[in-house]
Write a structure and sequence with these properties.
Its main location: nucleus. The protein has 325 residues and is an alpha/beta fold. It has nine helices and seven strands; from the N terminus they run αααααβαβαββαβαββ.
């Protein structure tokens, strides 16, 4: 009994020693103190991770809602093709209108330029001291008709860039002066069988600052061949007796002889010799001169013909013909 009691007492005592062992408690507390910061940090990180996961979940859900909205918007977008086509059509219409307006503006500018030139030419006056001998031709209207024809054909003349220009039977010199004013680069020459008309032509050109050499001669007989790029003729075209065509006074300004064309036909024979190969010849006629015959004569020389202008003046049907190769 003593041994049993002694053994039992010893076991109880050891158990009590384990529970109340100060060394063990100190060691446990030390281990807990050493591990607690790490455990706390681990807890904080786990907590932060859970919070981040929650926020990420919320953002994913929000993004999913936005994607659903985008998908819905893409499926329900309006058809813009009709509006694009309307815009393109409007652009084309605006472009057409702008082109029309620009063309109209250019045309107005051209008309203004032509009017200013016409005004300048028609208001060209002769010096008071000039001899008052009528020009070789029937009236000033003839000269203005030729001026209108040259004005209408101005772009064609500029493109040819003529060097020598001749007016046969210049009279007062209004026509050759007008041509010299719009083609300042060319050298202008005029002829007239009436000496006073030559003086008047020279004065008219000088008054308007145009370089002109006026020659007192019959038609263009004494010039070298193939000299002139442009030849202009306002002939005496009134039907008269042939004898009247041989005079050199004022009668020469209107007497045309048979068919009013005797003087004209003489010049037609000269033109192929005096006109440059690429030259142009302007001729004023009336219906009584039978223009078709003139065209046929010049066609025989190899010239083509265009009617530049046609007008009724004082009950006369006048026209300006252009002959060229």
């Amino acid at each position: 009994m003593d041994d049993t009691e002694s053994t039992t007492t010893s076991a109880d005592e050891n158990t009590g020693n384990l529970l109340d062992n100060p060394t063990r408690d100190t060691l446990a507390e030390g281990l807990l103190g050493f591990l607690k910061p790490t455990v706390d940090q681990l807890d904080d990180r786990v907590r932060a991770t859970r919070i981040s996961q929650l926020e990420l979940k919320q953002q994913i859900e929000s993004l999913n809602e936005e994607l659903q909205n985008v998908r819905s918007a893409l499926n329900d977008h309006p058809d813009l093709d009709p509006y694009v086509k309307k815009l393109i059509s409007c652009k084309h219409k605006v472009t057409v209108v702008l082109n029309v307006l620009q063309a109209s503006q250019d045309r107005l500018n051209e008309i203004r330029r032509v009017v200013n030139k016409e005004k300048r030419v028609r208001t060209a006056v002769l010096p008071e001291a000039a001899p008052q001998e009528p020009e070789q031709g029937t009236s000033a209207e003839d000269s203005f008709l030729l001026i209108d024809a040259l004005e209408k054909d101005l772009e064609y003349l500029k493109a040819k860039n003529p060097v020598f220009c001749l007016e046969v039977g210049s009279g007062s010199g209004i026509v050759i002066t007008a041509l010299g004013m719009v083609l300042p680069q060319c050298f202008c020459i005029s002829t007239d069988i009436n000496r006073n008309a030559c003086v008047m032509s020279k004065d008219t050109a000088s008054y308007n600052k145009v370089v002109l050499d006026a020659c007192n001669m019959d038609l263009a007989c004494f010039f070298v061949d193939k000299m002139f790029d442009v030849v202009i003729f306002n002939p005496p075209y009134v039907v008269t007796e042939s004898e009247e065509c041989r005079r050199t006074d004022i009668t020469a300004s209107w007497a045309g002889g048979v068919k009013g064309r005797e003087i004209t036909d003489r010049l037609l024979d000269i033109i192929p010799k005096k006109l440059a190969d690429d030259g142009v010849f302007y001729l004023l006629l009336v219906q009584e001169n039978i223009p078709d015959e003139v065209v046929k004569i010049m066609s025989g020389y190899g010239y083509k013909c265009d009617i530049v202008i046609k007008r009724k003046v004082r009950n006369e049907q006048q026209l300006v013909l252009k002959f060229y190769n």
